[in-house]
Amino acid sequence: MRTYDADFHLHSKYSGGTSPKMVVKEIARGAVRKGLDIVGTGDILHPRWRKHVRRELEEDEHGLLREPRTGVLFVPTVEIEDRNRVHHLVILPSLDEAEDLYEDLEPHSPDITEEGRPRVDLSGAELIDLLKERECLVGPAHAFVPWTSVFKEYDSLSECYGDAVDRVDFVELGLSADSSYADRISELHDYTFLTCSDAHSPYPHRLGREFVRLELEEPSYDAIKAAMHRKPGGRVVLNVGLVPELGKYNRTACARCKRQFELEEAERLNWRCPECGGQIKKGVRDRVLELADLEEPEHPDHRPPYLRIVPLSELIAKALGISTVTAKKVNAVWSALVRRFGSEIDVLVEAPPEEVAEVDERVAELLKAFREGSVSIRPGGGGRYGEIVTGEEGEEEGESEDGRVVQRTLDDVLRG
Description:
This protein is of the alpha/beta class. The protein is built from 17 helices and 17 strands. The chain folds into two domains: 2-243, TIM Barrel, CATH 3.20.20.140; 310-415, no CATH class. Strands 3-4-5-2-1-11-12-15 form an eight-stranded mixed β-sheet. It has a three-stranded antiparallel β-sheet with strand order 6-7-8, covered by helices on one side. A two-stranded parallel sheet has the order 9-10. Helix 11 (312-320) packs across helix 12 and helix 11 crosses helix 15. The radius of gyration is 21 Å and the shape is globular. The model is unreliable at 394-416 (pLDDT under 50).
């Protein structure tokens, strides 16, 4: 068995709000630079995207697709919105099954030919029944976000999926939650957690910003299925994701002006911002506290470690005092580090700070501080991402009880 780093949730250029660079060639190139071995195709029910995927990728006998120039493996995936505005992540066995699923869903969807993330007039239970006929893997996407998720609409998976709840294969946590959040809800203990990027562009601060490390006997759909079900042939050995406070829906906040609120205050204001009149959206942290039936997270024996990270370009920008992660100076340092250590994942997870210092001392210092827990996070909310705050900046703002959140080295995480 060997390990594979996989990001199963992303989108093509045919989904709303995505970059025109979300094509196979650019996704594969981004995956190599990030350090990903397997990525989802995203949007595989979209006819033009499916045609592009068939043209650009070579299907193997195990149901995966290989990009010939880079060797990156793709697996057919799609995000589907049901009639109750719950989003579901679907992993398919093959392109042929994707063709058949398109035919199954077309009568139930008004936009399946135009939108990469189609809406269907089916309940969660009805959708699972149909997907299981095609031997798909399925679970709720970004389960806690305040717009289109299972825990936005329901208080339990059972309410969404009914009698089909036992056929749910995984739960995707989303950028504003981690295992410690979700494992305060005992209903979720039986499920494998996925950490995925939901990337809308191939840039390294988006693609692979969350991923899952799998141990597989072979890179195949069956082995991925075994990993989800914790059966012989594959297993999930590590979840890797953003510090939850960096997610853009972690705190309860106004969707317009981004002012943050305590839950009781938002309820008293009837979810309308007194500053601008915008809608206040309940944060993931507050939603988890509402749903939690455990005082502290209780991780089941099968739950792998969770490694918290921050995108390397964001860390570099903060270290250099630059406001944008796409600046030329940021990219130059990012490229130098990736050339030195092999990939962004290697830099974030494995690289010794003293060797990072040979490329840039400021970045090495911040990486070391992040790993040691001596930086703070200004939490995100209302659609605005959180950000790292350091030194006097953090001292001026003060720190919440959970303000100091860290990325540890991989060895530290595996030692518990």
